[in-house]
Write a structure and sequence with these properties.
The protein is α+β, with helices and mostly antiparallel strands. The chain has 8 domains: 167 residues, Lamin Tail domain (Immunoglobulin-like), CATH 2.60.40; 167 residues, Galactose-binding domain-like (Jelly Rolls); 69 residues, Immunoglobulin-like (Sandwich), CATH 2.60.40; 146 residues, no CATH class; 211 residues, no CATH class; 87 residues, no CATH class; 64 residues, Immunoglobulins (Immunoglobulin-like), CATH 2.60.40.10; 79 residues, Immunoglobulin-like. Helix content is 15%, strand content 35%. It has 15 helices and 68 strands. A hairpin with a 6-residue loop joins strand 62 and strand 63. The radius of gyration is 38 Å and the shape is globular. The N and C termini lie far apart (84 Å).
Length: 1086
Amino acid sequence: MTNILKHWLLTGLIFLMPAVYLCQLVISEVSPFGSFNDVMGDRYDWIEFYNSSTDTVLLSDYQISDDTDNWGKWILPNDHLPPDSTMLFLASGKDKRYVVDHWEQILGDGSLCRYITPNSQVDNDWSLLNFDDASWQMGPLSIGYGDNDDNTVTENVTSVFIRRQFEIDSFDNVKYLAFHMDYDDGFIAYINGVEIARSPNMSNVIGGYDDLAEIENEAVIYSGGEPEAYIFDHEFLTENMIEGNNVLSIQVHNASANSSDLTARPFLHIGVVEELNLGNDDPSNWWTIPETYFHTNFRLSTGEPLILSSINNSLIDVISLNENLRDELSMGYSGFNYNSICYYDNPTPGFSNENSWCYSGIENEPEFTIPSGWYDEDINVSIQTSNPNATIKFTQNGDEPDSNDEEYSSPISLYETSILSAKVFSTTNNLPSSTSDAIYLVNEQQTGMNVFSVITDSLNLWDWETGIYVIGENASSEYPYFGSNFWQPWSKKSRLKYFNSEGILKSEEIIDLEIHGGWSRAEPQKSFRLDFKNEYSGLFEHPIMMNKPEISSFNNLNLRNGGQHVWSDKLQDAIISNVTRGTHISYSSWEPAILYLNGDFWGIYGVREKIDEHYVENNFAVPSESVDLINSFGVLNGEGLSFNSDAEQILDLDPESFGFINAFGSVFDLDSYIDYFIFETYTQNSDWMGIFWGANNIKLFRSNELDGKWRYAMYDMDASFGYFGAGLADNYIDYARNPGFPNDHSMIFNHVLENDEFKCLFVNRYADLLNTNFRQDYFNNVVDSMYSLISETMPLHIQTWDQIGSYNEWLSSVQAIKYYNYNRLNPARNNVINSLGLPGRVDLLLDVFPNGAGKVKISSTFPETFPWTGVYFKGCPVHIEAIPNEGFGFIEWQSNTHINQGAMDDYSQTVNLELLYDDEFKAIFQPCPNTISVTIQHVGDLFIPLINDSYVVSSYEWFLDGMLIGNGAFYTPLSSGEYQLYVEVNGCQFQSDIFDYDANGIDHLHSNEISISPNPASEYIIVKKPKDVSLSLTITDIHGRETHISNYHLDEIDNRFDISNLSSGLYELILESDNGQFSYQRFMKE
């Protein structure tokens, strides 16, 4: 529907709408910007209804919609609203037609539980419902020591593991579950094995029995505090719990082995939706009980209507959501006056608006007479407003203008790169406009890179207490200055302009700006994360990643400073990511970009995808809600704890057992697993797999809407290629198999390499990748292509940050990556040989003759040019195949050592060969004959091939409706359908036309009406036919090739044919009548 049509429809609706103050239910206030937190902490749009009558309203008599063509989009729930009362609804799209009537406690102080204070690893299944905990101790909650507030006192221990079963008879009346945990020092909690909560100080902890919380935490209830709530809705209950018995499992850890206290004090409450007491305890008296809300099945958008009508489609109220609304504003009616719309700068969801100031409208944004962009001379910018009675205020430092800022009165002269921010202020009763921003890049050259201009209030960056870029008052004195503001998970609302590589302004967004990264946060040039949120301007919808042009929508982007390489090459992580192209690895794309921060040149960045559930959605076309994403320390999205049972399943299998590789391949995507571990071990990533410290930089994901298999994602390769001190010959295959800090991932890798089939897959693919992606020419081309994109701008970047000594030093750092890769190749091959017990290596040369006639494939590698050289390993058979180009056929392999030693058949187009010697594999091709035609003849009950030349056929393939059904010289058709024959002659393939066969409709001449004599024959044959039947005759050899007797018309009853020139062998005689009947006979030529 066009905007003009929508406008007239809305105008008509509003004109026809009765005076709303005479009605009972009205829309009293609304906001379409996700500005309200629900009980689970998510932010949603909201609608407030008001009962203006003196009677109680039955809500199910009304319906609400944002669609002028469907007023009944969502019928209000079967609930009541008393007179002169408001009720808040959340427009989330989740369609929750329930709210909590009351809460009941089902677990808390005094509840009996099973517990253990372990001195060795606890069984992997300990958190599951069916785990046998009969050997564990029993005691009432809470559990701990040292504070004199525990009902069960333990010894001074590092950790305690707790299990408590609880029962929910039915989910019909129970719609929410609330979990609270009062703890000292850290905890992880599960229901039925699904992780539901984890304290922040356990975010980088696996959860072994002897793991320690990262920092101390004090319990709060004993001092009058309230522990944080983790609340789950009906969807979680039905997906992860069962009606009947469930189990809550909690592990609590101290921050040190000699801690003076430990507290484990959990609580569970259920949210009951009916006025029905289920017989449990009242809620804990320390809990501030939250409100729950009904949720509509749609979300709101500015420019769209919100239509309230009766269940019989009588219009009651309609509000058109003003295009100028923004996240801090709402609109509705004031007090009891429902004759005109009000706009509020202090929204009051769920409460009366009568004390809120009613603004009449919102000013339109100001406009700049010169658009943002590049200019090669000084410019004068004017600012305009559509309201001549309003005033314009502006700033030039990123701050959003307020009424105290400078008033615009005349064109602004700009002599250098600058930003302008302007806002219109009313002189009547309108709210100020949104802020308009512009950036003018004066006397600056375009770089050919993407450009991001981030504009934000200066205090968001530089305020000592709240600025995200500064150290702040809580920083430690040593690098990387933990505790600094830039280590906090803070985000600041900001404005963004995005220019593509051609300098065209493509996007203007409202974003949340965050500092991103690890230790590189401590560097002067810091990395940023740009979060594109629904409550602002929504997704970033531009295909910015040239490696992945099919992805055109992002909910966040990382602007990476180069990580730990910010002071050297800035590119290593991105280079390794780009080298993975064409493999099965999930990697984060890279695009170079320039950042301007509040108009200042902030240098070169790499635009990167964040590895999260939205990455999986973008890259694999599955819903983000279906993605399970985990790292070494816990679940990041979805339900990932089943990885523990998956790991146990693999580790419990004998790697030499039959079916092991299939079982492994049902859990992990085999191709991506192999490529991932090859890249990580070849590049010698020190900050990975627990090799030297914790199991960092490990993420893996799966989706049942893909194939349900786990895939690793590769990211943060800063510590690779010797950057943290690795030597060229250091064997990271061994390090990953037996790291300093073992974990499930390392144990599985070590285990699966004990399987011979997997080992050879791994070995041959290792050889492939070293021969291709890490081959010197390919690798260097990747580096050079990336280097060339930023090289012209690097001098300005170096001058700005003074982190890299000079351009030449930067260039040397980039070249060093190329040198390291080249020098790593042979030591890496020795790593494979030594780690996997192989006999050695072989140097191979692949070639073809004549040039351009075909290709030779080896393992998974398809070389593009010949001759081609590569290195493979002894001890694992390698697949080698000659592949002719169109118009050529394979003849043979040129004689080589393997052929001469009897290890290989020189006429086999495809071989699986255990390589024993350095050798050359040269495939010989020849042009295909261009005179061959293939026809299917139906002879008796057989299909036989009819070939018009005397070439020897080496293979036959019969197809029915496109499916291969046979490969003999003849075929007996049993079903109707479209048949086709492919034959191979001299390595070339030829195909027949489609033969449309009706199994019920083919008619045949009776065989007793035809005779051949003598049979066998040497000089001649006599063919006897029925008297009144006209026939034509063709004789073919057993391969369907026609002889000199073809389409010969039989005039006599007895017909004599000379066969003396035919070679000895079996021949086929085909007779066809004028009406399409056939007879097929065979005879032997002596």
